[in-house]
Amino acid sequence: MITIIGAGIGGLTTALAFEKLGIEYHVYEKAPELKEIGAGIWMPPNALQVIEWINPSILKDLQLHGNSIDRITLADLQLNPISDTDQNFAKEQFGFSTIAIHRGKLQYLLLKNIPKEKITMGKAFKSYTSLSDQKIEIVFEDGTQTTTTYLIGSDGIHSKIRHQLFPKSRLRYSGQTCWRGVAAYEMNPTFDHNGIEMWGNQLRFGISRLQKNQVYWFAVALSEPNLKDDTVFLKDKLIDLFSDFHEEVIQLIKHTPTDKIIRTDLNDLKILKTWHHHNICLIGDAAHGMTPNLGQGGSQAIEDAYYLSNLIASQKDIIQAFSEFYRLRSKKVNSIVSQSWNMGKIGNMRYGSRIRNFMLKNVPSSKLKKQMISLYSIDKTISNK
Ligand SMILES: Cc1cc2nc3c(=O)[nH]c(=O)nc-3n(C[C@H](O)[C@H](O)[C@H](O)COP(=O)(O)OP(=O)(O)OC[C@H]3O[C@@H](n4cnc5c(N)ncnc54)[C@H](O)[C@@H]3O)c2cc1C
């Protein structure tokens, strides 16, 4: 039996991949239910290829409930394009362009395809004890226990399993905080299928339509860590902060319920030298938490599900599969972690934003295409189903 802790994007897709390949598993999630919380999320072609492999009908659901992003545009604060990555290229190469979807909807569409008896909600992992080579005892916060042969930690960037497995692991604060929301607003239809990130001076603002009258936005600013907002003044504060930005930005903030605006300090995880020890393995943000600047954290968790499940299905020795999983995945993932970190530093740089924008405008499209290929490719040969 393999026990998965955490029913986020990584845990849910791993469960679905195990389901497809006939691998025995059970998932425990601390939240009593997965509500429509969160804001939007971009699912790029690498994630969509895995979802299609898991179950084409889930992909259809995502396409139905999300919005196809046909251009990803980096723009200045007045929405003038700096650079543009044409997703048609991705479509030709990989079959898909990016989909923007509500995060709660994504999780719901994944969850509904997992048999109810294989997931226990409202069970928070507390600690584990290795009883023997083949037996791990798991203790939950409510005092109950269970045993398992293998344990997968998909419990997110603040993973308790990782804290116990690798107590020296550390998060790295980027110096940036991010507010996210979903506005009940119809933007100028020119932007219907555009994913936009606007770079100003020490500030960034991202926009993408999710559905009719639903626009996802995120706003990134430099900040001390762990600050809380006074909800009474939050919208005014954001409007003030982004007052130099295009009027659409101000409208989006105005059309978002204050209590639905989420603030997250942007951290990544200092790169780990391994993601497993014996019969315990980390995946997703627990293994390789990254800043969201490339929109790849969730997608990399989904890729983890693909590689790990196929390795387990083909290897018999699951501990060997855990080692092989790190060997196959770490190069790409670690490179994305550092590219994402650097992108955030450039995006919110304190000085020289004009020179930065000028240089970005002149990045050859061949370079952007090369980056898309390295981000969006998955190895199809490891799957035999
Ligand atoms: C502002 C922002 C924007 C982002 N945008 C994108 C994007 O556009 N595209 C993209 O691909 N990625 C994006 N990401 C990254 C993405 O959200 C994460 O990489 C992704 O959620 C990681 O999935 P995960 O399953 O590893 O962890 P999570 O999604 O964090 O899931 C962890 C799960 O474990 C559960 N859990 C935690 N502790 C316990 C416990 N003790 N016991 C039981 N359960 C537990 C949690 O409740 C949760 O359900 C963004 C991140 C941020 C912060």
What is the element layout, followed by pairings?
Layout: E1 2-5, H1 9-21, E2 25-29, E3 40-43, H2 45-54, H3 56-65, E4 67-69, E5 71-76, E6 81-86, H4 87-94, E7 98-102, H5 103-111, E8 119-121, E9 125-132, E10 135-140, E11 145-148, E12 150-153, H6 160-165, E13 171-183, E14 194-199, E15 203-211, E16 214-222, H7 231-241, H8 247-254, E17 262-269, E18 276-277, E19 280-282, H9 284-288, H10 297-315, H11 318-347, H12 353-361, H13 365-376
Parallel strand pairs: 1-2, 1-12, 2-8, 5-14, 12-19
Antiparallel strand pairs: 3-7, 4-7, 5-6, 9-10, 10-11, 13-16, 13-17, 14-15, 15-16, 18-19
Helix pairs in contact: 1-5, 1-10, 2-3, 2-10, 3-5, 4-13, 10-11
Bound molecules: flavin-adenine dinucleotide.
Domain FAD-binding: 3-313
InterPro entries: FAD-bd (IPR002938), FAD/NAD-bd_sf (IPR036188)
Keywords: FAD, Flavoprotein, Oxidoreductase
What can you see in these coordinates?
InterPro entries: FAD-bd (IPR002938), FAD/NAD-bd_sf (IPR036188). GO terms for molecular function: FAD binding; oxidoreductase activity. This is Zeaxanthin epoxidase. The strands form four sheets. A seven-stranded mixed beta sheet has the order 6-5-14-15-16-13-17, sandwiched between helices. The chain has a domain at 2-67 and 96-172 and 270-346 and 366-382: FAD/NAD(P)-binding domain. It contains 13 helices and 19 strands. It starts with a strand and ends in a 9-residue tail after the last helix. The mean pLDDT is 94. It is α/β, with parallel strands linked by helices and 385 residues long. The longest helix is centred in the C-terminal third of the chain and has 30 residues, at 318-347. Residues 5-11, 28-31, 41-42, 124-125, 154-156, 160, 178, 180, 218, 264, 284-286, 292, 295-299, 301 line the site of flavin-adenine dinucleotide (FAD). Flavin-adenine dinucleotide (FAD) binds next to helix 1, strand 2, strand 3, strand 13 and helix 9.
